[in-house]
Amino acid sequence: MDTKTIYARLNKVFRDVFDDEDITVGPKTTANDIEDWDSLEHITLMSAVQREFRVKFTMGEISSMKNVGEMADIIAKRAK
Amino acid sequence: MKELEYPFDSEYIIKKRKSLRRTLLSDGSSRLKKKIAVFGGSTTNDIVVYLDLFLLNHGIEAEFYQSEYGQYWQDAMFPSEELINFAPDIVYIHTTGRNILNSPSSSDTREQVKELLNSEYSKFEQMWDKIRETYHCPIIQNNFEMPFYRLMGNRDCSDYRGRSNFLTRLNSMFYEYSEKHEGFYINDINFISASYGIKQWSDPSYWNMYKYAMCIEAIPEFSFNLSNIIKSVFGKNKKALALDLDNTLWGGVVGDDGVDGIQIGQETGVAQSYYEFQSYVKSLKSIGVILTVCSKNDHENAIAGLNHPEGALKPEDFIIIKANWENKDRNIIETASELNIMTDAIVFADDNPAEREIVRAQVNGVSVPVMDGVENYIVNIDRNGYFEVTNFSADDIKRNEMYKANAQRAAQQASFADYGEYLRSLEMTAVIDDFIPVYLQRITQLTNKSNQFNVTTKRYTPTEMEAVYQSDEYIRLYGKLIDKFGDNGVVSVVIGHKNVEILDIDLWIMSCRVLKRDMELAMLDKVVERCKACGIGKIRGYYYPTAKNKMVRELYGTFGFEKISEDEKGNTVWELDISGYEPKNHVIDVRENSEEK
After folding, report:
1. What was the ipTM of the complex prediction?
2. Total-model pTM
3. Cβ B344 vs Cβ B363: under 8 Å
4. Which of A9, A13, A19, A23 is the mutation pick for testing B, counting most B CBs within 10 A?
5. HSE of B252, CA atoms in CB hemisphere, 13 A
6. Residue A59, min C-alpha distance to chain B (Å)
7. B-chain residues within 8 Å CB-CB of A18?
């Protein structure tokens, strides 16, 4: 899956989860950039991203992701 | 909302929860407002998020209090001022196997395990008693799911030292408490977790990372199951199941294939599946669900199909059989009006998606489960919790007989020229008197179920009703109506509180199945009689309009009360001076409960 597709689909998930059509995510996006992205919403986000790409992140991956770019890298490696 | 009915797509709900909530809140419907305190033994945030969604869909707008993480016991035992002021309508205790820290060890004796069990249990019992005494409200308590690993393998369930065995015994102790205490309900997470799959459910990463006792994807199903208990407690259950016939209750089309050609019975797998579904439907009757038929068929063919010798259901199991060529939405609306229930109390089951769509679109509030494949029929109806049983009174069991007798009365009414003559022919007797303990449950249930003949729509929890019953500040009356076709059970309740020489009526309700029988007049006569006996000279009635209670807007007016005020919302206050009151009921023979039996 190419990077462009991954970001397009990630963007859709972020907009759904945070119910905000103005969100656009890039590799450097972090929780600080999105107002509602707190630790509770993070759980929902992880679930929705895993569902979108039909992947399951390991505990190690979830706890070490620093930004959306790292999330996209893992997806690129694992998603079929 | 279709998205929130079983079988739903949990992952879709998770992703779209915010916009689903927005849509629900802007649909313009009026909802019951309730306050729910959630005492958690693990993170409860998402449990509340989805519970809120499902409750909104059930017509309940809830305000929530959540205890700090893991503080369920402390919050229950030492309530903060915030919690006391919150005054919950219901307390939900979200504990799971993760909260049972003491497990038997393999060196323990039988007695030591017993002690351990008692010490875990008494912690809970103490907490429940404290909550009951502090808030006088219903309690919902999780049972325990089975552990996701078994130290002793299969023996873990049967050996007294096994954790599975320990949790099963603890569950049984919870059930005993539940049997002995009204207003205490078990949320069966043991079933839901097993149904979901305990391996996925208990994925330890959710506990270790977020302190959720189950995986996120399981929470919508979990919260849906919980919401069904709550909506049932607050009187939002469905009452009737309207069933299609061809390819719903049997395989094939009776009009084309003939009675001998339809699939029902023990011959084939398909026939057996339809038989199993018929048996399930028949057993719904025993928990008080009213059954009706709504089918496009010639009437004779429908009856012939229902008389199939291999079928479990028979024509007499149905209160109303609408087998004709009218549109189904019209038949459903007529069914509701003949049963004197609202259309939102009906579940319509039909294998044909087009019929389902029409009924869903045209009939206000009706529930229409997906019926795709006879093998899914039972689960799709069952898991929606339409008929979730929280209180189980003798009246529930008899309800079908009562509605059947009603249908007979309607048939007889047609043969009388004069309505008074008809009423006298019913040979009605009523028992009207102060509450007695055996009826408290039914009385409470009526206060939560009655929407139409209900002037104030005041709801009572079992504990609140107990308090009314214990106090001498009230004049309380229940009314039971019997006629030559049968016993209607307790059908009317009036509660008034004494305000020096005035009686303020807090509640006046009547079941719609006894409308136009002059029962309300018999109740009024008794209210007046009881007022006079304790020196009260004036009765004051209140009417608060809702979407459903228009039929009693002028109730007090027809009783001869004088309207003394009306505000811009249509709330009215009425008064009656009872000094010259003459009894109004002349058709019902009224007794008091000492004469009952």
Report:
1. 0.88
2. 0.77
3. no
4. A19
5. 16
6. 6
7. 18
